[in-house]
Structure formats: structure tokens, C-alpha cells
Backbone:
């Protein structure tokens, strides 16, 4: 199975006790198994594991929301272009950017009673699905479709249903 190539930038605030690169690549592989449009090694994703302030500034600038959030996804390709880019083995395609906020992720993990690693894995899968064109904000059916893909990807990794 192939998956998008992740270029990872990790703020030191995330710490070095976890192999974030390996965790991120496992999340990408699981996402590619449930969303075949992601199963192409010529797709490139920038994953930034940032602090809350950086995510807050990006959320304010690009989404007009004056607060931090757990994950932001900035697609570079429309869904039909994702499918085309993945099919053309000679043309790498920049799928987009995913940015995680360390403080929000840590707080949410504590509230859910799960590890930060498990929550970050979920958020990376969630972000990748957004980059592939899935959008839970389009309606109930779209939200259920995206959540089901997340459940399946996380189950492949032995992680619990985040929506249970």
C-alpha cells in the first residue's frame, strides 16, 4: 500500500519522546487504505505540528475565526484534481497542508481520556481526508461518510472510535 509523502515540521513544544514522523506515516497509510484516492506516493502533504498561537493566527487569517483549533487543512487541489494527480505517476501533486495545534490537541486528549499520540493520529487522518476532498461541513450525509472513513482508518491502527 502506498500513501502520500509527508513533509513534517515539528515544533519543539511537541517534545521528542514520541516518534511523530513514524506515527504520521502510519496515519497516512491507514487513511490511504480507506480512501484510495490518497494511495499514491506522488502526492505530497506538508504536516506542521505547531503551537496554538501559530494555529490561531492561521485560523484568523484564512478562516476569519479568532481562536485556535485542533487541526487546519488547506487543500491545494480540488477533489477531481486529487483523483487525477494520484493517477499520473509522473506528476507529483502537492495535496496541501495540515497544521495541528499542540495545546488544543493535548487538552482534547485529556478530556477524552486518550493519549496525545492517539488523538494526533485521528487529527492527521481527519486532515488527510479533508485534503482528499471530504468535508463534514457540507451536511449530515457528508459528515457521516467522513466519520466512517476515520473510524475505519483508526480501527486499522487498533484505535477506538473517536465518535463513540
Residues:
Amino acid at each position: 500500500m502506498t500513501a502520500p509523502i509527508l513533509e513534517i515540521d515539528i515544533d519543539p513544544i511537541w517534545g521528542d519522546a514520541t516518534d511523530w514522523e513514524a506515527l504520521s506515516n502510519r496515519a497516512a497509510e491507514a487513511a490511504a487504505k480507506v480512501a484510495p484516492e490518497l494511495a499514491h506516493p506522488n502526492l505530497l502533504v506538508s504536516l506542521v505540528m505547531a503551537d496554538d498561537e501559530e494555529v490561531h493566527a492561521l485560523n484568523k487569517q484564512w478562516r476569519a475565526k479568532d481562536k485556535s483549533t485542533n487541526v487546519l487543512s488547506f487543500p491545494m487541489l480540488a477533489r477531481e484534481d486529487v483523483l487525477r494527480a494520484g493517477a499520473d505517476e509522473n506528476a507529483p501533486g502537492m495535496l496541501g497542508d495540515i497544521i495541528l495545534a499542540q495545546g488544543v490537541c493535548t487538552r482534547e486528549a485529556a478530556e477524552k481520556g486518550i493519549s496525545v499520540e492517539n488523538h494526533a493520529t485521528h487529527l492527521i487522518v481527519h486532515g488527510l481526508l479533508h485534503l482528499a476532498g471530504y468535508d463534514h461541513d457540507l451536511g449530515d450525509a457528508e459528515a457521516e461518510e467522513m466519520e466512517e472513513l476515520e473510524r475505519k482508518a483508526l480501527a486499522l491502527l487498533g484505535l477506538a472510535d473517536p465518535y463513540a
